[in-house]
Design goal:
376 residues; alpha+beta; 2 domains; five-stranded antiparallel sheet; 12 helices; globular
Length: 376
């Protein structure tokens, strides 16, 4: 799970409205493609979902990729300009290589930072080190980013009839999806009011001024940067609250995660890793107490269905399966469930971040059958 590609594209498009379109042709195209380019690693799904878990957010998102990918994007843009665009319209101005490369660097650099903001994780140092880091600040889909950046790009554009139709379809689909999911009514009302405000500004304002001024995209991007900083700071503070509450409950804390919730910047789902398992809970900025922990619902690291040495052998046999090893490369809070099946065993690997989520596919874990013959 990562920030959606619509968000990445809107960031690139909003940056282009600051004046990049006057520097070189295809500036917006360059920024939008560059802002999404690290997700070329989505092709790893061709080798299976669990392989993709171990591969994604790695080599195409790290520091080395931030240097290499902009040159690739620039090459693609220049090739398109030479072989397609200028052949169709010989009189148009050619794309300028230098500015296009700078825009590619800018667009690509936004991607890993945005992906780092959620709970999935990032490996900035690949291929030199395989360490995961987590921002834990934004849910994978944030409608407030859509609303602010999408509204700014729409107001700063001159899309024409076909473009307006496309914007209307996009807004309608996003609104439908957003309004049917189980989120607070206040969030749904805020989204609806925001859409209406954008439409009122567009059709009641001075269109020529909106399309030529950089004030709106500049304000939107500034607001989003402030929002990201605020959410990261809020997450750090909420984790301190959780640690304090866990210590008061006599829990031996190893690590703490406060996972953001969809469309609700005031609430978070808590996971406290202790020496024996994962304690779930909640954090809410507008409630008292802010933190609630549920030690009675603890998820043990390993369930005790046999002697410890026997369990270790069973788990080790399961870990040798490629899907299991790939899953554990990615897993931040892994735990194991072992179930006897006659003379055989079922081994279930999961991650406490996503084990209670529906519809997350392989993120929630996998089951492997271990036979007695494999243990001999």
């Amino acid at each position: 799970m990562e920030l959606d590609n619509l968000t990445h594209g809107l960031v690139g498009a909003a940056i282009s409205k600051l004046g990049a379109e006057r520097i070189t042709p295809l500036a917006t195209t360059t920024l939008v493609i560059a802002a999404n380019a690290p997700d070329i690693d989505v092709l790893s799904f061709l080798r299976g979902e669990y392989f993709a878990l171990s591969f994604r957010r790695g080599i195409t998102h790290g520091w080395l990729a931030l240097i290499v990918i902009p040159f690739v994007v620039t090459g693609v843009i220049l090739a398109w300009d030479r072989t397609v665009r200028r052949r169709r319209s010989p009189d148009v101005n050619p794309v300028r290589p230098g500015p296009t490369l700078l825009l590619s660097f800018l667009g690509v650099s936004t991607h890993p930072f945005l992906d780092w903001l959620n709970t999935y994780g990032m490996r900035w140092q690949l291929p030199f080190a395989d360490r995961w880091t987590y921002g834990d600040a934004l849910f994978i889909i944030d409608p407030w980013v859509w609303l602010v950046l999408g509204g700014a790009v729409f107001l700063s554009s001159s899309p024409g009839r076909l473009g307006n139709t496309a914007w209307a379809l996009l807004a309608g689909l996003l609104s439908f999806a957003f309004l049917v999911i189980p989120i607070p009514l206040a969030a749904k009302a805020t989204w609806t009011i925001g859409i209406l405000i954008v439409l009122w500004i567009r059709f009641r304002g001075h269109t020529s001024f909106l399309e030529t001024s950089s004030m709106i995209p500049k304000g939107a991007l500034t607001a989003m940067v402030a929002y990201f900083v605020l959410m990261v700071s809020a997450n750090l503070a909420s984790r301190r609250h959780v640690r304090t509450t866990a210590a008061e409950a006599n829990l031996k804390v190893v690590d703490v995660m406060v996972s953001p919730q969809p469309a609700n910047p005031f609430a978070g789902e808590v996971v406290v890793l202790t020496d024996v398992g994962f304690v779930p809970g909640t954090h809410h900025w507008l409630r008292n107490p802010r933190v609630e922990l549920f030690p009675d619902q603890i998820v043990p690291l390993v369930n005790e269905v046999a002697e410890a040495e026997r369990l270790e052998v069973i788990v080790e046999a399961a870990r040798r399966y490629p899907d299991a090893s790939h899953y554990l490369v990615w897993s931040r809070y892994p735990y194991v469930r072992i179930e006897p099946d006659g003379a055989n065993w079922w081994v279930f690997f999961s991650d406490a971040r996503y084990d209670r989520d529906n519809g997350v596919g392989g993120l929630s874990g996998l089951r492997i059958r271990i036979t007695e013959e494999q243990l001999r």
